[in-house]
Design brief:
The structure holds 2 protein chains of 2 kinds. By secondary structure, chain A is mainly α. Chain A starts with a helix and ends in a 6-residue tail after the last helix. In chain A, helix 2 packs antiparallel against helix 3. Chain A has 3 helices and no strands. By secondary structure, chain B is an all-alpha fold. Chain B has one domain (4-248). Chain B is globular, with a radius of gyration of 20 Å. Classes of the chains: A mainly alpha, B mainly alpha. Chains A and B meet through helix 1, helix 2 and helix 3 of A and helix 3, helix 5, helix 7 and helix 8 of B.
């Protein structure tokens, strides 16, 4: 069971190494999808939101990460 | 007809990412082999490869059944989660927030853990060694398989991406067998930095395509995305590095 647990933990860790980063990425994707699917703005604007949102999430995550002790993976 | 504007980054990302994963798996298999002999290490590694092959054979055909836009969206989001995670870690290591990974130290730590486990469990080291090698190959291999599928599936580039990954694994194996030491001189963090930026760029690209966005410039926009992630990562890393030095002073 330890083997299965370790593999499952490894798989989860691939995509959710940092829970706050993963949640923020999903929020950006959901926001872009909402803009595009509800036709609030053009798909191009949705794309710009997705791209800029991901860059902003990265910067935020890096500076937050620099302020607190890290778990070394 | 393969478009090299997407194929080149896909093959490059698969090669570089697989190089990182293969080096990490090799360090663990080498620790098992050195501590107990190569039988347990090779049996475990072969079993790991076998399970990986089975997973690919079992789940590979499912990819063809998923509608293209949905596949692009799923893979895009997973790539964003995976690639930005790698990029974040690489930037924090570059900035000095997390220590750089040292394969020699990792090798020593793996060897110590194996010895400790064998003593505490009172069982044969062969068994523990084999399981350790199996887990290393399976877990690092799963990342390689994911990256190959992620960068290759959206544009029917699975074969070139697989060849890129295979070339990296063969290279690590050949050099590793030759020197029989942890591959400490591979610039792991630099590779992770570049691959993280590339995978994040693919993530934005596929997610956008999955949502129905027609990117301006088509496939070429990938390079713009990758350059932006790289520059933002380098810039943030430099600022964090400098601010950390100020704190120390």
């Amino acid at each position: 069971m330890s083997l299965v647990r370790d593999v499952a933990k490894g798989l989860l860790g691939m995509f959710v190494g940092d829970a706050a980063l993963s949640s923020a990425i999903l929020a950006v994707v959901a926001g872009a999808a909402l803009v595009i699917k509800t036709e609030v703005a053009s798909t191009q604007l949705g794309g710009a939101l997705l791209f800029a949102g991901c860059l902003a999430v990265l910067v935020g995550s890096l500076f937050r990460g620099a302020r607190r002790p890290q778990r070394i993976g | 007809m393969i478009s090299w504007t997407v194929a080149a980054p896909a093959v490059g990302a698969a090669f570089a990412a697989s190089l990182v994963e293969a080096v990490e798996a090799f360090t663990i298999v080498l620790a098992v082999g050195t501590l107990r002999g190569w039988r347990a290490a090779l049996m475990g590694a072969m079993a790991g490869l076998l399970v990986l092959a089975l997973l690919v054979v079992l789940f590979g055909p499912i990819l063809n059944r998923i509608p293209l836009h949905l596949l692009q969206l799923i893979i895009g989001v997973l790539l964003l989660l995976f690639g930005m995670g790698w990029l974040r870690e690489a930037v924090l290591r570059y900035a000095g927030v997390i220590p750089l990974r040292d394969q020699q130290a990792a090798f020593a730590a793996d060897t110590a853990t194996l010895s400790q486990e064998a003593m505490s469990r009172q069982s044969g080291l062969d068994w523990i060694g084999g399981i350790t090698a199996f887990k290393a190959v399976l877990l690092e291999g799963l990342e390689v398989v994911f990256i190959v599928i992620a960068v290759g599936a959206g544009r029917s580039l699975l074969l070139p991406a697989s060849l890129g990954a295979l070339a990296a694994c063969m290279l690590v194996l050949a050099v590793g067998v030759l020197i029989q030491r942890p591959l400490a001189r591979v610039p792991e963090n630099t590779l992770k930095f570049g691959v993280g930026a590339m995978l994040a760029a693919f993530g934005v690209f596929w997610t956008g395509e999955g949502l129905g966005i027609a990117w301006p410039g088509g496939d070429l926009v990938l390079f713009v995305f990758a350059a932006a992630f790289l520059l933002v990562g380098l810039g943030s890393g430099a600022v964090i590095r400098r601010s950390a030095l100020w704190t120390v002073q």
